[in-house]
C-alpha cells in the first residue's frame, strides 16, 4: 500500500483508536490538547473526568460491561500516580484497558523538568506491558502491540507513554493497521480428556463460574453443562451475571457470600470445576479447611492465574471452548438423581432462610432508617429486570452480594470491584457501564455513603456526559465497616469515630448539576421514591436516592466484623 502519514503522533493515535472501534475515551488530559483536537472530528464520546483515578474506574467498568478495551488518556507525573489505584483495579479485575500518558521530553530527562517522573518504573508492577515511545517511527508498532496484549492471554491493562518531543511530529506507517481481536485458544486435547475423565467420576460436583467466564456463555452453554453433570452452580462475585440466577441448579455466590443452608454443599461436594476463577480468598472463604478434602479442576485462559494449593488438575484455554469440549466428551453422561435433588432442596431452603433473615434484620433497624433488605426488594420491583447492578463492597452494600436477597434472574447483569475493592470504584464504574450497555438497559449502582462521597466530585462529569444512572446510596453516616471494627475494640465507646449523623450535602450538589435527588428515612416512602427516580433515569437524567441505613443492619450470616472479613455464624448441623 501507499504509506500513510499522519500529521502528528496524536493524529496517529486517534486513527488507531478509530481502527479499534473505540467509541468512548475516558480521561483527564494534560496540557497538550492535541488528542481532543483530533477527536473533535470524530463521533467518539469523550468523558472528561475531574480525577484520574475515577477515569480509570470508569474505563474499567466500560471494559467489564462491553468485553472490549477501555481507553483512558492522562497527563504526566502526579496524573500517573493519581491513576495507579485505578490501574491496580483494572489489573486485578482482569480487563483489557489501554492507558496513554504524556511523558517528559527525551532531552529533559534527569533535569528536574516540570512533572518529571520515571513513569515506566512506577507503573510496570500494575500492568501487563508498559512502553515509552521516544521516536515517531516506533509509535505504530507500539500501538498495535498494546492493543494485542490488552485483549489476548489473560486480559489486562497496558501502558503507552508518549514523549513530548514527538507529539507534534508526523508519523508514517507503511501498511494498514493490524486486525485486533482476542484470540480464544482451544484447550489441549490431552488435558481436556484427562479432566473430563475426572469430572465423569465425580458424584457430587459443583461448578464455580468466575470473572474469566464473563462474555463466554454463548447459548447458555454453562447452564447446559451444569445440567449434564447435575452440578450445583455457583458464581464468584466477579463472575456474577454470567449465568442465569433463576436456574434451578443456581446456588448463589461462593465463598464469603455463601451462607447456611447452602454452605453445606461445599462440605458434601467431591469436586469443584472452576471456570475462569483465580480462586481468590473471597471466592474460597469458608471452604473445607482441609484443602485435601475438595479437589478442584481449574479452567483458565492464562497460566499465571493457576492456583496449586489444592489437589486437582487444570486445563488452559478459552472458558467457552473448554466447556464445549467437555460437553462433547461427556455427551453420554448421566448423573445420579440424588445430588441434583440435594442442590434443589438446598436452594429452596435458602429462599426460606433468606426471608427469615430479612425479617430478623428489620427488627434491628430503629426509627429513621430503612432495612437494606427492603431497599433491595423495592429496587427489584421498581427497575426492569434486565438492569445491570453495579456494586461497592462496604457494610450495608454487601447485602446485595447475597443471593437471593438480590437475584439477577436470567436477564440481569452485574459489575463488582475485584478483590482489591478500592472505595468509590462502583460509583465511578457505573458511568462506564452505562456507556457500554445499550441505551435502554437500566444501570443501577448500590453504594455506601463513604464510597459515594469519594465519587461526588464527578457529579459534574456525570451531568456533562449526559449519562443516566440510578444511584442508591446507603447512608450510615460514614465508614460503617470501620466503625463496626472499632466498636469491637472499644465496646464502651471511643474518642474516635468513623460514622456521625450529619447532613450529607448531596441534595445541594445534585440540584446544582440538574440531577434528581430523594432522601428516604421511612421504608413506606421507599417504593414511591425509587419509582420516581427510575422515571427520571428512564428519561435520561441521573438520579440519586439516599437511604438512611442503620449500622446494626448487618449482612446475612455475619455475627460481627473482624478485620478484612466478618465473623460468620457456625455451620448448621444437617
UniProtKB/TrEMBL annotation:
<keyword id="KW-0786">Thiamine pyrophosphate</keyword>
<feature type="compositionally biased region" description="Basic and acidic residues">
    <location>
        <begin position="565"/>
        <end position="574"/>
    </location>
</feature>
<feature type="domain" description="Thiamine pyrophosphate enzyme N-terminal TPP-binding">
    <location>
        <begin position="11"/>
        <end position="120"/>
    </location>
</feature>
<feature type="domain" description="Thiamine pyrophosphate enzyme TPP-binding">
    <location>
        <begin position="420"/>
        <end position="547"/>
    </location>
</feature>
<dbReference type="InterPro" id="IPR012001">
    <property type="entry name" value="Thiamin_PyroP_enz_TPP-bd_dom"/>
</dbReference>
<dbReference type="InterPro" id="IPR029035">
    <property type="entry name" value="DHS-like_NAD/FAD-binding_dom"/>
</dbReference>
<comment type="similarity">
    <text>Belongs to the TPP enzyme family.</text>
</comment>
<dbReference type="InterPro" id="IPR012000">
    <property type="entry name" value="Thiamin_PyroP_enz_cen_dom"/>
</dbReference>
<dbReference type="Pfam" id="PF00205">
    <property type="entry name" value="TPP_enzyme_M"/>
</dbReference>
<dbReference type="Pfam" id="PF02775">
    <property type="entry name" value="TPP_enzyme_C"/>
</dbReference>
<dbReference type="InterPro" id="IPR029061">
    <property type="entry name" value="THDP-binding"/>
</dbReference>
<dbReference type="InterPro" id="IPR011766">
    <property type="entry name" value="TPP_enzyme_TPP-bd"/>
</dbReference>
<feature type="domain" description="Thiamine pyrophosphate enzyme central">
    <location>
        <begin position="193"/>
        <end position="320"/>
    </location>
</feature>
<feature type="region of interest" description="Disordered">
    <location>
        <begin position="555"/>
        <end position="574"/>
    </location>
</feature>
<protein>
    <submittedName>
        <fullName>Thiamine pyrophosphate-binding protein</fullName>
    </submittedName>
</protein>
<dbReference type="InterPro" id="IPR045229">
    <property type="entry name" value="TPP_enz"/>
</dbReference>
<dbReference type="Pfam" id="PF02776">
    <property type="entry name" value="TPP_enzyme_N"/>
</dbReference>
Amino acid at each position: 500500500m501507499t504509506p500513510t502519514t499522519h500529521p502528528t503522533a496524536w493524529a496517529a493515535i486517534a486513527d488507531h483508536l478509530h481502527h479499534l472501534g473505540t467509541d468512548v475515551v475516558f480521561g483527564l488530559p494534560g496540557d497538550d490538547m492535541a488528542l481532543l483536537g483530533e477527536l473533535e472530528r470524530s463521533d467518539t464520546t469523550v468523558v472528561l473526568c475531574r480525577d484520574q483515578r475515577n477515569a480509570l474506574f470508569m474505563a474499567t467498568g466500560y471494559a467489564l460491561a462491553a468485553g472490549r478495551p477501555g481507553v483512558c488518556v492522562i497527563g504526566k507525573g502526579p496524573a500517573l500516580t493519581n491513576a495507579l489505584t485505578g490501574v491496580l483495579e483494572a489489573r486485578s479485575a482482569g480487563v483489557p484497558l489501554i492507558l496513554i500518558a504524556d511523558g517528559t521530553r527525551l532531552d529533559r530527562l534527569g533535569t528536574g523538568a516540570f512533572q518529571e517522573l520515571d513513569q515506566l518504573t512506577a507503573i510496570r508492577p500494575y500492568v501487563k506491558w508498559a512502553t515509552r515511545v521516544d521516536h515517531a517511527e516506533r509509535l505504530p508498532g507500539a500501538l498495535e502491540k498494546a492493543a494485542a496484549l490488552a485483549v489476548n492471554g489473560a486480559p489486562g491493562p497496558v501502558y503507552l507513554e508518549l514523549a513530548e518531543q514527538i507529539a507534534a511530529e508526523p508519523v508514517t506507517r507503511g501498511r494498514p493497521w493490524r486486525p485486533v481481536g482476542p484470540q480464544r485458544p482451544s484447550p489441549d486435547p490431552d488435558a481436556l480428556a484427562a479432566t473430563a475423565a475426572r469430572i465423569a467420576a465425580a458424584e457430587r460436583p459443583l461448578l464455580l463460574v468466575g470473572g474469566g467466564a464473563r462474555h463466554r456463555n454463548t447459548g447458555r452453554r454453562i447452564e447446559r453443562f451444569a445440567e449434564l453433570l447435575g452440578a450445583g452452580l455457583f458464581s464468584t462475585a466477579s463472575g456474577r451475571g454470567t449465568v442465569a440466577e433463576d436456574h434451578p441448579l443456581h446456588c448463589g455466590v461462593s465463598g464469603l457470600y455463601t451462607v447456611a443452608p447452602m454452605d453445606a454443599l461445599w462440605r458434601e461436594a467431591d469436586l469443584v470445576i472452576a471456570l475462569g476463577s483465580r480462586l481468590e480468598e473471597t471466592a474460597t472463604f469458608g471452604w473445607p479447611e482441609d484443602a485435601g478434602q475438595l479437589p478442584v479442576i481449574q479452567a483458565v485462559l492464562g497460566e499465571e492465574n493457576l492456583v496449586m494449593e489444592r489437589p486437582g488438575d487444570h486445563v488452559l484455554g478459552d472458558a467457552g471452548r473448554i466447556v464445549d469440549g467437555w460437553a462433547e466428551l461427556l455427551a453420554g453422561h448421566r448423573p445420579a438423581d440424588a445430588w441434583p435433588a440435594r442442590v434443589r432442596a438446598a436452594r429452596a431452603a435458602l429462599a426460606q432462610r433468606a426471608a427469615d433473615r430479612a425479617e430478623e434484620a428489620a427488627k434491628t433497624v430503629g426509627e429513621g432508617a430503612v432495612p437494606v433488605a427492603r431497599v433491595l426488594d423495592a429496587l427489584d420491583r421498581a427497575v426492569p429486570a434486565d438492569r445491570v447492578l453495579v456494586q461497592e463492597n462496604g457494610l450495608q452494600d454487601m447485602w446485595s452480594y447475597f443471593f437471593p436477597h438480590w437475584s439477577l434472574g436470567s436477564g440481569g447483569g452485574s459489575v463488582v470491584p475485584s478483590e482489591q475493592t478500592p472505595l468509590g470504584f462502583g460509583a465511578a464504574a457505573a458511568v462506564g457501564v452505562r456507556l457500554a450497555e445499550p441505551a435502554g438497559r437500566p444501570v443501577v449502582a448500590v453504594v455506601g455513603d463513604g464510597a459515594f462521597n469519594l465519587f461526588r466530585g464527578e457529579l459534574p462529569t456525570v451531568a456533562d456526559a449526559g449519562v443516566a444512572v440510578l444511584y442508591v446510596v446507603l447512608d450510615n453516616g460514614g465508614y460503617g465497616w470501620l466503625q463496626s471494627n472499632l466498636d469491637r475494640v472499644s465496646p464502651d465507646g471511643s474518642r474516635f469515630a468513623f460514622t456521625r449523623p450529619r447532613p450529607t450535602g448531596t441534595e445541594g450538589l445534585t440540584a446544582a448539576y440538574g440531577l434528581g435527588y430523594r432522601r428516604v428515612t421511612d421504608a413506606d416512602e421507599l417504593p414511591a421514591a425509587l419509582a420516581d427516580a427510575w422515571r427520571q433515569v428512564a428519561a435520561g437524567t441521573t438520579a440519586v436516592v439516599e437511604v438512611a441505613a442503620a449500622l446494626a443492619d448487618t449482612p446475612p450470616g455475619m455475627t460481627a466484623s473482624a478485620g478484612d472479613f466478618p465473623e460468620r455464624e457456625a455451620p448448621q448441623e444437617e
